[in-house]
Predict the 3D structure of the following.
Amino acid sequence: MIARIWKARASADRVAEYTAYFQSTVTPELRAINGYEGATLLHGVVRDRIVDVTVITWWTSLEAIRAFAGEAVETAVVHDSAARMLIDFDRTVSHQTVVLDE
């Protein structure tokens, strides 16, 4: 399994809006892709009214990720509507192979 990890920052006022958007819009799109195994959405501690957001999506292979992200798999996929909810976000993602999942 491969973890695709992306990070962003949101205001404390808008982080719930992004979470709802992720649930209602992003996850249904991901579920339609063969090889998608799930997602984890993390919120960091609020500092100066800013919340760190980490999204981890779980995939069976890089080929499955390419079906979502295209050939430039290291480039983040961020819809314009999501970008407007965020203060800023990473333009790239990292991929890590899961070696232990207990």
Summary: Strands lie at 2-11, 36-43, 50-59, 88-89, 94-97. The mean pLDDT is 96. The chain is about 30% helix and 35% strand.
